[in-house]
Amino acid sequence: MDTWLFEQGFVVKGDSFYKIEKIRRELKERILVKKEELSYEKCAILLNDILYFSKLGMPVYDYVKQKYGIDVELLKDKKDLPVEELEDYAFYIFTELSKRIEKNKEDFSEDLLDDYDLTCYIHFYPTSDNVLFLVETKQKEYLDIIEDHFEVHQFSFDVALDEPPYGISHIDWANRAKEWLSILNRCGGAENWMPSSGGFSVEMTENGLFVPDSKEVYKYMGSVRNSDLDRVFDMIGDTNKD
């Protein structure tokens, strides 16, 4: 078990089921909206990079296979393709990513999942006075939504630290240790950790990516179209830079 498992830990004061259900509905609604926005943005970045590669006469096929692990045979040896054709490829790649991530995340590198795994789970743990919960996601934007909720308070804990981080008192840190280590034991301990076994889990977003409509993606193109070309060169190395 990761010693920093409780980094994304939070608490809601009080143990009212109705309060938790209300917060769950509110967070789910906001996270689903953010998932759509993230999908538009990430698909726009993908399309923008493909357009740059084609415009610069670089091997789009190699870039797609290297970064996304998707072999698009029709892209081999093609350069300076019409924008409309490249758009079709971009949406095909994005759709394939959606299907593959939903089917088996083990096929992808951590870096790629950090970008394209838009799922989110919350594991709730009622205690005698409060409800603690862990957020399982790779998207900081989801955590920001949760932290911004006025009834949710940050309650992280690191079992590897002997001293509390700056800004947290020893009393507060000891209380967090007591609460989270109790939940750790309820969930099978460090060796047999099963986050849902000591409480209940909720899937806040569906598996896979949200495949956006092309018209919506274009709204995001302006913010990424002027991306730094050096970033593109970094992806494929400096061999063609000159």
Structure, briefly:
This protein has eight helices and five strands. With 242 residues, it is α+β, with helices and mostly antiparallel strands.
Structure description:
By secondary structure, the chain is α+β, with helices and mostly antiparallel strands. 50% of the residues lie in helices and 11% in strands. It contains eight helices and five strands, in the order βααααββαβαβαα. β2 (120-126) and β3 (130-137) form a beta hairpin. The chain starts with 8 loop residues before the first strand and ends in a 6-residue tail after the last helix.
Instruction: Determine the number of helices (DSSP H or I, runs of at least 4 residues).
Output: 8
DSSP helix fraction = 40-55%
What is the typical, i.e. mean, pLDDT? 83
Q: What distance lies between the first and last C-alpha atoms, to the nearest angstrom?
A: 47 Å
Radius of gyration of CA atoms, rounded to a whole number: 22 Å
Main sheet characteristics:
5 strands, antiparallel
Please state the overall shape, judged from the principal axes of the Cα atoms: elongated
The helix/strand order is EHHHHEEHEHEHH
Q: Could you tell me the strand content as a percent range?
A: 5-15%
Q: What are the SSEs and their pairings?
A:
Blueprint: E1 9-13, H1 17-55, H2 60-68, H3 83-103, H4 110-116, E2 120-126, E3 130-137, H5 140-148, E4 152-154, H6 170-186, E5 200-203, H7 214-224, H8 229-236
Helix pairs in contact: 1-3, 1-5, 1-7
List keywords for this structure.
disordered C terminus; 11% strand; single chain; five-stranded antiparallel sheet; alpha+beta; 242 residues; 5 strands; elongated
